[in-house]
Specification:
636 residues; alpha/beta; Histidine-containing Protein, Chain: A; hypothetical protein tt1634; 6-stranded mixed sheet; 17 helices
Length: 636
């Protein structure tokens, strides 16, 4: 073979090899570029712009700094959906995590008839055994299920106050859920009545720590109203309800709108309860209230399905007949209407006999007027003594003839109505019964109206003029904690609780002061207070501190003997450490030997300076140009 032919063949093979190498290079570049672009586009679509993508042959390299470990893993997963996961090489870093924030400590306390459950996370520093003992003590030994976890982190300063308040509240509520956190306590509970609901809401709000927010949801079951009563009247151009009952919220709204159309301007409310005589209650009351409005006065009283309508004196007979006839035609079948148009007064008629009973603010009851027999007077006297007090009743009523047969029943009914008041009077005449006075219960007017509607027939008229006084309300009239502290201080002004020399026994004069303080604390309810015992500087310091502690505890025991609730009152001895006078004189030492009552107020939570605020503060320089902090350190 010629040499030229060999070179030609060799050149052909070399050219083919070079061409293959070039073609392979282009193919690899195409694969790398395609993989890189596809992975890059998908990461950008998932907002992972922090990731960097590179390729080397079939391998895909992911680099960059991921914000979290989860983000790094997600980037790997996204790349694995584009290329084979075995081709993905992880070269990513994870951004350094900030200091882990402490967990949010909280407890859910559930209580029902079967016991108590504690669920949540508490600080490891919490004495779990003491907490369970406090819960058992507050609930009279109810079984407790401890489902709490603990974490070893510092807790907010308000956590102990919030937890202690929740445990105290738990003892007052047999069915409740209490959610506790350092800054908030939420209480959801059910009580037996609306009165208990109002009293519990006030009690819980008064005893809450100042540095903890409180959310209350106290509910009460709908009351059973017997008889189902409503009384609407217009007197001297003023419309009002003496009693109002509704079976649903919708019916309540309809009744109040009807009263508003009839002239009611003052705020009114209807009790939503059970016991309605007919589903058509709202319709019937709307019609009757509208009838009173058309008459321009008078009253309408519902006692279940019986309706008593009284028109104003002087109403034209034709107008009365038209209004009553229309009302009778429109009322649902179950309701029975009895309408009365009182005659005009006859000036020549004889003097109308009366029976009058008055109740003074001090609790004294004076009974005067007319009774129909000696037996009736004895019955009235016994009944009044049973309702009020045997020492408080004074009877000056005289026996007279010509009184109605129903007079004794009406008199006893009036005395029963008087017992609903704090002070006031009831007047009985042959045709009417009136009740007027003051009360500390918002529901008293409705209760009296309901009672009279049940006891009196529809043909007998009664009138109410009952005023709610907040000062007489045993709940709303409670003094504030600051007022309680001031009243106790006033009792000790000019006198003091003294003890027998060198002992913790209260002398006779001190016992009298304790009686007055106990009465104040009973009116104040549960307030957080400390009884502090103090001595003079004579004797050893340790013995003085022990003696002052014993005396403070003796005062606390005396309060317990007087049936004062002391679960929120602490006793502490300070010995001679807090003098208020000179111990070098006899008068000064006498002044320093004392018992002090003071409110326990939460410590204010100090505001912590943020890092930004510390950087913004100018650096104070010392006299030689050194900053103030370094100068202070050198002096120390």
């Amino acid at each position: 073979m010629r040499l030229s032919s060999v070179f030609t063949i060799a050149a052909t093979f070399c050219g083919a090899a070079v061409l293959c190498v070039v073609a392979a290079g282009f193919a690899v570049s195409a694969v790398e570029d395609g993989s890189r672009r596809a992975v890059r586009d998908m990461l950008d679509l998932r907002n992972m712009v922090w990731a960097e993508v590179d390729t080397d042959g079939l391998q895909v390299f992911l680099a960059g700094t991921a914000p979290t470990e989860a983000a790094r893993f997600k980037a790997l997963s996204v790349a694995g959906t584009i290329v084979d996961a075995a081709r993905v090489i992880d070269q990513m870093l994870v951004q350094d995590a900030a200091d882990i924030a402490p967990p949010r400590f909280s407890i859910e306390i559930l209580r029902n008839d079967r016991g108590i459950s504690l669920i949540g996370l508490v600080p490891k520093a919490t004495n779990r055994k003491a907490l369970l003992a406090d819960v058992a003590k507050a609930t009279d030994g109810a079984p407790v299920a401890d489902l709490l976890d603990a974490a070893d982190y510092p807790y907010p300063e308000t956590w102990p106050d919030a937890l202690a308040y929740a445990v105290r509240s738990l003892g007052k509520l047999p069915r409740t859920k209490i959610s506790v956190s350092a800054e908030r306590v939420e209480i959801t509970a059910m009580v037996d009545s609306a009165e208990a609901q109002r009293r519990m809401e006030t009690d819980l709000a008064r005893s809450a720590p100042d540095d903890v927010r409180l959310a209350l949801d106290i509910s009460a079951p709908r009351p059973v109203i017997t008889p189902f009563t409503l009384r609407f009247l217009i007197e001297d151009g003023t419309a009002r309800f003496d009693a109002c009952s509704a079976d649903t919220e919708e019916a309540r709204g309809r009744i109040l709108r009807a009263a508003s159309h009839a002239g009611l301007q003052a705020k009114a409310d209807c009790v939503v309860g059970m016991g309605v005589p007919s589903p058509q209650w709202a319709r019937a009351t709307e019609l009757a209230i509208a009838a009173v409005g058309e008459l321009g006065g008078g009253s309408v009283t519902f006692s279940d399905a019986d309706i008593a309508l009284w028109a104003p004196q002087g109403t034209p007979q034709g107008q009365f007949d038209d209004v009553v006839g229309q009302l009778e035609a429109d009322l649902p079948e179950v309701f029975a209407l009895q309408a009365t148009l009182p005659p005009l007064p006859d000036e020549s008629a004889p003097v109308v006999p009366e029976f009058i009973a008055t109740l003074s603010p001090e609790g004294q009851v004076l009974i005067r007027g007319r009774l129909n027999s000696e037996a009736t007077r004895d019955t009235v006297n016994s009944f009044a003594q049973a309702r009020f007090s045997s020492d408080a009743v004074h009877v000056t009523a005289r026996v007279a003839e010509g009184l109605p047969k129903t007079w004794p029943l009406r008199v006893l009914t009036a005395l029963e109505a008087l017992s609903y008041l704090s002070n006031g009077a009831v007047t009985v005449t042959p045709d009417a019964l009136s009740v007027q006075g003051n009360t500390g219960r918002k529901s008293a007017s409705a209760e009296i109206s309901q009672f009279l509607s049940e006891k009196l027939s529809g043909s007998e008229q009664f009138s109410l003029d009952v005023t709610y006084k907040e000062a007489l309300d045993p709940v709303a009239g409670l003094p504030t904690p600051d007022e309680c502290e001031a009243k106790i201080a006033a009792v000790q002004t000019g006198r003091k609780i003294n003890f027998e020399p060198g002992s913790a026994n209260i002398d006779s004069a001190g016992a009298e002061i304790m009686d007055e303080i106990a009465e104040i604390l009973k009116r104040c309810g549960e307030i957080r207070m400390e009884i502090g015992g103090h001595t003079d500087s004579q004797g050893r310091e340790g013995m003085n501190e022990q003696l002052s502690e014993q005396r403070a505890q003796a005062v606390l025991n005396e309060l317990r003997l007087r049936r004062v609730l002391t679960s929120t009152i602490d006793a502490k001895g300070y010995g001679e450490s807090r003098p208020i006078a000179d111990n070098d004189t006899e008068d000064g030492r006498e002044t320093n030997r004392r018992i002090e009552f003071r409110l326990i107020r939460p410590e204010p939570v100090p505001e912590q300076q943020t890092a930004l605020e510390s950087l913004e503060q100018p650096v104070e320089e010392g006299p030689e140009g050194q900053d103030q902090e370094n100068t202070t350190d050198e002096q120390n």
